[in-house]
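Troubleshooting entry. The earlier prediction with glutamic acid gave an output that would not parse, so I re-checked the input for stray whitespace and re-submitted. Clean input:
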Amino acid sequence: MTAQAWQTLSNRIQQVAPSATLAVDTKAKTMKAEGIDIIGFGAGEPNFPTPGYIVDAAVAACQDPKNHRYTPTAGLPELRAAIARKTERDSGYAVDPAQVVVTNGGKQAVYETLQVLIDPGDEVIVPAPYWTSYPEMVKLAGGKPISVLASVDQGFIPTVAQLDAARSERTKAIIVNSPSNPCGSVWDAKTIRDIAHWAIEHHIWILSDEIYEHLTYDNTVTSYIGAEVPECREQLIVLNGVAKTFAMTGWRVGWLIAPRFFAQAVSKLQGHLSSNVSDVSQRAALAAVSGDLSAVAHMRSAFDIRRQHIEAMLNEIPDVFCPNPTGAFYAFCNVTGLLNKPHGQHSSVAYTSAELAALLLEEAHIAAVPGEAFGAEGYLRFSYALDDKDLIEGIRRFKAWVEA
Ligand code: GLU
């Protein structure tokens, strides 16, 4: 190693951007800790406590020394079985527990899937606006993310014609995320079926991130690709977790469901990467997925009220347009009308949505994630999974800043 080279970090890590959602969240929390009254619409995490029966299961697990040990890498057998039963209940098709791998949050399920699937130069179609970590994880696996932007006029839902135009001989996979982060769109059953048939025809793996499955509004429902088109299950990886459904972001329990040989390969990787997910967290997740969905029904009602408030309030701000989000807990609004013009007490000018987000944080003390993080410049994402009072005050600050 030469004197110049020893401090150089790998190309792999230099090529990826930091997580924008976590960066906004960290910045907002740091400013808060400094005594600045910031309202955070950054990271999407429910503000509700984890339901009591789940916490009780974790407390009991802590007190039993049998849970102070490693578990099998792919997860506790009873948790894998419960996830299989939950999938049959919610998604409507049978899964063998051997197809399930329990991961350290849904994020690790996405990461490991891509590590197992992608060789250098392979392409992954990533419909945009996309969750900020997908393209970076594709790059970390040596692959090439191919972004396909679905416009607001399409309800942010891509067409198969658009996907096919992005397809090449190297297309290995497509990421489907409905209900979607960041747009809150819920893809209709026909689109889901069309994508499955197109993927089957062209031998493309489908990575279906279903983490927001239970958060839909205005009579929309999640269409499960593995139920809509059973023939696609041989090339389908379902990505999911307890974080959003049970307000368990900090417990870090996710999973993937894949063909058996694929699940075994993921388990091999995880055996070298992180071993098992915390035993106590797995016990908590077992209580969550074995129970009913009444806790999420309660949270969904609260989110629905906030959704209606935030959409109405954002649309009252001059030059802001917020399409109706029918899923997840994000409002994704177009702010191009605010760019290149003076706003706020200091007549500050933002030329990009990233600059606008920075100004809103500094001057209006509200944290939102800029569209650049999701492959869609000119937008801001507001997570509405926060307290009602803060939501109203935060959007009031945004409006006051625009109108100052
Ligand atoms: N998925 C959430 C978000 O987009 C959590 C933060 C993250 O891990 O990106 O805000």
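This one parsed fine. Residues 27 and 33 are 10 Å apart (CA to CA).
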